[in-house]
Amino acid sequence: MSSTAPLPAAPASSSRMIQVLGGIAMLSGFLVVLTYQLTLPRIEENRQRAIERAVFQVLPGATTRRDFLVDDNGVRPASEGGSGTRVYAAYDADGRLKGIAAEAGARGYQDIVRILYGYDPACECITGFAVLQSTETPGLGDKIVKDAKFLANFPLDARLAADGKQLANAIVTVKHGTKTGPWQIDAISGATITSTAVGKGLNNSAQMLLPRLHPHVDQLKVQP
Question: Where are the alpha helices (DSSP H) in 7-80?
Fold first, then answer.
């Protein structure tokens, strides 16, 4: 009958090294969490400032905004809390509704391209957009905010179908020079992937949001 000889105990120096490395790992994790918690308010403050600027950029003439949440049950002030898609109703100096802004996003060449777009209920159209976050290649992907011909795609037709459950025409990015409808986005040559991301983001958001939002637009027209 054979027996297995016990393994030799780890040298004291190895045990000490493991303890030190474990302590360093725990300390590093703690510092990461602490840094995140300390910087979170500043990050959120900067995000809100970026959204504020973007709202007034995509809805020219607006001077104030109110935040709302939209879900299957309708529209309510965001201050009431709960879940739903956040939208930003923007008003001019006389309190008239200039339009509604919402976020959208889709994967581009490098990562998710996050934008904020403006919607005008009067024309049922998307008036324009501003980039909130993008890591696309400088000189190519950033053409979506610099190329005059690309920006001339807007306003985009975002009318609902007769049943009110979806857009009458899906918003889609088409090959450069082949645009035939006001709901299509003429892509930028050399930046097709980023152009397509804008189209996908707008279509996905509008298809989900506008059928829920449009029946309740009158609730947003009066600024208290």
Answer: 12-58
Residues in CB range of 153: below 8 A, 6 or more apart: 179, 184, 185, 186
Question: Residue 196: helix, strand or coil by DSSP?
Answer: helix
pLDDT of residue 24: 82
Single pTM value for the model: 0.75
The reply to whether 16 falls in a domain is: no
Residue 24 lies in a domain: no
- For the stretch 18-43, pLDDT in tens is 777 777 877 777 777 766 566 655 65
Which residue shows structure tokens 């959208």?
104
Residue 122 lies in a domain: yes
Does 88 reside within a domain?
yes
- 197 is in which domain, residue-wise? 42-221
Mapped onto helix, strand or coil, the DSSP state of residue 71 is: strand
Alpha carbons within 13 A on the beta-carbon side of 5:
3
Name the nearest CA neighbour of 113 among 204, 19, 49.
204
Q: How many domains does the chain have?
A: 1
Digit-coded pLDDT (tens) for 134-163: 655 554 456 787 888 999 999 999 999 999
- Cα 66 to the center of its chain, rounded Å: 18
**C-alpha triplet 91, 127, 133: angle, nearest 5°:** 90
Measured over the CA atoms of residue 179, residue 184, residue 188 and residue 191, the dihedral's sign is negative
Q: If you ran DSSP here, which 8-state letter would residue 182 be given?
A: T
Q: Residue 54: is it exposed, middle or buried by C-beta count within 10 angstroms (0-12/13-18/19+)?
A: buried
Half-sphere exposure of 170 (CA within 13 A, CB side): 7
